[in-house]
Amino acid sequence: MNRRVVITGMGALTPIGQTVAEFSQNLVQGVHGIGPITRYEVGESKFKVAGEIKNFDPSTRLDKATVRKTDLFVQYALFAAEEAMTESKLAEQIDPERFAVYFGSGIGGIITLCQEHEQFLANGPKKVSSMMVSKMIANIAAGNLAIRYGAKGACLPVCTACATGTNAIGEGYRAILHGYADAALCGGSEAAILPLTIAGFGNSQALTTSENPDQASLPFDARRGGFVMGEGAGVLILEELNHALSRGATIYAEMVGYGSTCDAHHVTAPDPEAKASAKAISDAMQGLEGVDVSQIYFNAHGTGTPLNDVTETRALKRALGDEEAKKLHISSSKSMTGHMLGAAGAVEAIAAIIALREQTVPPTLGLDQPDPACDLNYTPNHAIKTQLVGALSNSLGFGGHNACVAFKLWQD
């Protein structure tokens, strides 16, 4: 098949920017959005920092009825999608039956679940909201997006933990590539900064206990001790090339590859041999065949957990070979945003596209004491200007989910 897939719209809601432009500026400048948790009193909890969305005002893009009827993770999704759809100018220029939605969340409407559970305990079953289910279920962001934009093609919510956003983009890519759709709204959202979720992730030894926001999210650094919880949403509009060209759409990048595998090893720990995660990277890189590795940017999953960062380093070496892997430009934007869970892959795919368009490798903040086991070019602390032709974004999720997507610089 000769179908090609391009990106014609992007939307980002992150701890370092509530638009793609703001996110891009802060990403390249190395501004982080991690700070003390303000959503609730942390009290005696060991886990005191997060990457929160500050001063979020849904009313700038959403009506009051929509806000009242939706969980925060859905509001985040709709907010980011509005930017992406506006940028793409796709509305009314796509056959609804050829417009798909591939959008997920790692956790879904847990804010609603917690609120309604408290209501149930305090006042009994009759006081539980009739909208609880329609606000809570993990597929409902995808459903709301399809309703809002009249997308009558496939509407599939992806839920692969921290790989959710990347898998959503990849599955949308395949749907267009193989002729099942002409355009797809893809991405992920998460809003889970709550006492319960922080305690759960923290007690599983996944979160940092650092109270210093500047030294909390430390991917690939020897001092790293876990990830920082983040939140937000990322949306990409994928479109078949000729469809995009026929309507004069702006093209931000071409999507050229996707890999999806499973470790089948452990519910939380990555397989230390990194065979399956390396295959996901190799599969995605097939679309960049012929591109010099020194002209490729790799947005790492880079959570700042002891096991993840070593395993991801090993996966890159397996996929490319030790010497070629050292030529790759790598960084982790989680050093700035924290780990946005189901939204991470989508936002980081946008970061990869920004790197291509700006010809700039974003930094990994806080990387002052590199772990000897993480010995690749992780771009410590300062962005660098360089010639880039390709970019990849990588995700590894609880359950052993591995996903990687590849993009290529678009030139008219």
Entry summary:
With 412 residues, the protein is an alpha/beta fold. 34% of the residues lie in helices and 18% in strands. The longest helix is centred in the first third of the chain and has 17 residues.
Please give a structural write-up.
By secondary structure, the chain is of the alpha/beta class. It has a single domain (1-396), classed as 3-Layer(aba) Sandwich (Peroxisomal Thiolase, Chain A, domain 1). Helices cover 34% and strands 18% of the residues. The protein has 14 helices and 14 strands. The strands form 3 sheets. A 10-stranded mixed beta sheet has the order 5-4-6-7-1-8-14-13-9-10, with helices on both faces. The protein has a two-stranded antiparallel ribbon with strand order 2-3. A hairpin with a 3-residue loop joins strand 13 (390-397) and strand 14 (401-408). Helix 1 packs across helix 14.
Alpha-beta content class: alpha/beta
* Low-confidence runs: none
CATH superfamily: Thiolase/Chalcone synthase
Number of strands: 14
Net shape: globular
Major beta sheet, specifics? 10 strands, mixed
The CATH class label is: Alpha Beta
* Share of helix, binned: 25-40%
Could you give the order of strands across the largest sheet?
A: 5-4-6-7-1-8-14-13-9-10
- Rounded to the nearest angstrom, the distance between the terminal CA atoms is 22 Å
Rg over CA atoms, rounded to whole Å, is: 20 Å
How many domain modules? Answer: 1
The quaternary organization reads as: single chain
Whole-number average pLDDT? 97
Task: Give me the CATH fold name.
Answer: Peroxisomal Thiolase, Chain A, domain 1
User: What's the CATH architecture name?
Assistant: 3-Layer(aba) Sandwich
Give the helices and strands as they follow along the chain. EHEEHHEHHHEHEHEHEHEHHEHHEEEE
* Strand content range: 15-25%
Task: State the helix count.
Answer: 14
